[in-house]
Amino acid sequence: MSYVLGIDIGTASSKAVAVDESGEIRATEQVSHEISRPRIGWAEHHPATWWSEMASLSRRVVTQLGESPAAVCVSGMGPCLAPATAAGEPVRAAILYGIDSRAEAEIAELSAEIGDDELLVRGGSLLSSQAVGPKILWLQRHEPEVWARTRRFFMPSSYAVWQLTGEYMLDHHSASQCNPLYDLPANRWSEEMVERVAPGIELPRLLWSSEVAGAVTASAAETTGLERGTPVLAGTIDAWAEAVSIGATEMGDIMLMYGSTMFLTKVVERGARSTKLWATAGVHEGTETLAAGMATGGIVATWFGKVAGQPLETLIAEAAKVTPGADGLLMLPYLAGERTPIFDPHARGLLIGLTLSHGRAEMMRAMLEGVALGVRHNLDAFDEVSAPATRYLAVGGGARTTIWPQIVSDVSGIPQLLPRHTVGAAFGDAMLAAGAAGISGLESWNPVEKTIEPNRELGPMYARLFDLYRQAYLDTREVIHALVAADQPRNIRAIPAEASPTDR
After folding, report:
1. pLDDT tens by residue, 347-381
2. pTM value?
3. What is the per-residue pLDDT for 489?
4. Whole-angstrom Cα distance, residue 177 to residue 162?
5. Plot region of 432 (φ>0 → left; ψ -120 to 50 → alpha; else → beta)
6. What are the boundaries of each domain within the chain?
7. Which of 42, 141, 203, 489 has the fewest CB atoms within 10 Å, measured from its CB?
8. CATH of region 247-392+400-414+459-484, choose from 1.20.1290.10, 3.40.50.300, 3.40.710.10, 3.30.420.40
């Protein structure tokens, strides 16, 4: 039985999933990696790693199954800015998505020049650390030697397509996160904004995620083990591929992605806009989504595990025994700043209410609840500008635990549907590839197997905690910002003068 191959290049790892015509997973492969943080507020990863991991994963799957897939689709973290020459050669490490906040000055300048109303109507969102446009402007000003060589730009999925097929393209969804370069109502590049922000850049051809971008070339076949001529899909950013993997593609569907960071998407009517969220093109032609992204998620628990010197499983088991409300502890999970809905890169984590009677179990519980309170904050932002949600579907590694999604349901008062497979974006990539390969019955590939119902008795308590959560940020924001301003010069790790742009 033939199969399709989905590959995702994520923040912490890259993963491949081979799925046969009936929707059964025949093989999975994964490789871990770390992103580079050369300075406070910076986050980078090199395209050479994207390609080497993608090629390695492909070879391993093909070797294991003894045959090449019928079609391939790749997704990746994003939106990213990987500047490259006209020949597609990277000229520095990629500047990553919203976790990289280096372009604050450029965000402020472009926002003042263009205006919030125009940014919302045409671009779908106010400018933030998530937007690619300000990062392009930053590159021009701070690394002119890199900019002088830059003629194209890639994201993980589009770089994989380039290496596999030689086609220079970008999917509409990824392009819509290049604000202010993309005209969302018209689903095309904005020539005016491109000339203002990215003069001299050759823009990639735009395709929808489910469209075939090209075919595997002879040289790519030799590197990856794929058969020459294999169709390659346009692909997209990982969170939207995850939404495809669980069927969160119908009007009103909300995806909750439990990963290193917490990410949410909602399929909405065209034209829905919010200053607290991102509006983007969807995966399928003519659709739009609202998106919310927290700067942290599971990474908070991982960080605390390292600090406490305990396995994560141990801490989660201990936290499950703690009374809801964490015995009076409240956590603001802004350990890496925060994206939606407050858009504050200088926010910081707070653990409020500590006493001598508290231990690591209560702290861990407070951290899980803090992330859940952040989810509720974003769900409220969805409700402010769009019709009520029809379904809440959970995906990601954290969804496989018992306590975390249950806490999110309890805090937010929502039921969550858990599908059979929560392997993530690579499975969604495989579903997109299956459509191109002519495989039918995709709606049966990942049925819902479990529903997490909220404990309604906890509703009043968590409602009070949510009010305190929001107030705590407002009451401490000025102090935190002052601390950040005082600490930044001391903590910036200078790049050695002899380092080349590619080493950064």
Report:
1. 999 999 999 999 999 999 999 999 999 999 999 99
2. 0.89
3. 53
4. 20
5. alpha
6. 3-239, 247-392+400-414+459-484
7. 489
8. 3.30.420.40
